[in-house]
Design brief:
Elements: H1 18-25, H2 33-43, H3 49-69, E1 74-78, H4 88-93, E2 100-105, H5 108-117, E3 125-129, H6 135-139, H7 142-145, E4 155-159, H8 171-181, E5 187-194, H9 200-211, H10 222-227, E6 233-234, E7 240-241, E8 259-266
Parallel strand pairs: 1-2, 1-4, 2-3, 4-5
Antiparallel strand pairs: 5-8, 6-8, 7-8
């Protein structure tokens, strides 16, 4: 399996990347040997890991379409990862063809892929380099502000990314900065691995896999994840397993060695 795009210079491909590991789980080819080896460490204990990753991706698409149907036409996708179709702009524009999207990631390879995809300069879509640990840098980005109108409701997406931010790096502050910037009627979408209901051996396998990577895997309790929505009102069905969030298939993906929660909140 070969990476489909040129690798940016000065990238150490011997260090696993969470974005490229996720690409491997989804069946993509934009990953390297180190990414695959680390991912297989987790998959050796969690055989349904790929299905869980796909369920999380479907949650993202359903959430974006839900927001679009409820009047949201501009989105900030934080920690976007390597582009996988349907992308956020594809899901949003299936409802509103004029939807605007800003993709944000701090991985140079992710940004190289985004630049390649957006080379035709789709109007209303931009990808920027940004680290969610430094949210002020993101919201003051000229490129972002050329797309996003902060006087109107915004969809903020933190899908499968906050569990790579340690407590010391304060994921709550990253959300708080964005929450204060957007007006009433904006939405927050989060998915996150949880320690509640996750088998101890699965948690250990995931933590071991990401210990080698450029970011650790941080499991949080349901209560800790709910706190990420502080200042937003969770809409039904609340914070639930990602495959259960307004999905037609409400049965578990497989044995629950690893639980992945998702939810959507609205700023009152």
């Amino acid at each position: 399996m070969e990476n489909s795009h040129p690798t940016p210079p000065d990238i150490d491909t011997t260090i696993p990347s969470p974005a490229r590991m996720y690409d491997y789980y989804l069946g993509g080819k934009d990953n390297f040997s180190a990414d695959r080896e680390a991912a297989e460490t987790a998959l050796s204990v969690i055989p349904y890991g790929r299905q869980i990753a796909l369920a999380n991706r479907r949650f993202l698409v359903r959430a974006v379409k839900y927001l679009s149907r409820n009047g949201i036409w501009q989105f900030i996708d934080l920690g976007t990862g390597i582009p996988t179709s349907p992308n956020v702009h594809e899901a949003a524009r299936s409802i509103n063809p004029s939807a605007r999207v800003v993709y944000v990631d701090n991985d140079p390879i992710v940004n190289a892929h985004n630049d390649a995809i957006l080379a035709n300069r789709n109007q209303g879509i931009v990808a920027i380099n940004g680290d969610i640990r430094y949210p002020l840098n993101i919201i003051t980005s000229p490129a972002l502000n050329s797309i996003i109108e902060f006087g109107r409701p915004v969809g903020i997406l933190f899908v499968a990314v906050l569990h790579f931010i340690t407590d010391d790096e304060d994921p709550y502050q990253a959300i708080a900065v964005l929450k204060e910037r957007v007006p009433s009627g904006s939405y927050l979408v989060i998915s996150h691995i949880t320690s509640d209901g996750t088998a101890p051996e699965a948690m250990s396998a995931v933590q071991a896999a990401y210990r080698q990577a450029s970011a650790p895997a941080v499991f949080r309790s349901t209560q800790e994840i709910e706190k990420l929505f502080r200042g937003f009102e969770l809409i039904k069905p609340g914070l639930v397993d990602v495959n259960e969030w307004r999905g037609n298939n409400r049965k578990p993906v497989g044995p629950t060695e690893l639980r992945f929660l998702g939810g959507v909140g609205r700023k009152p």
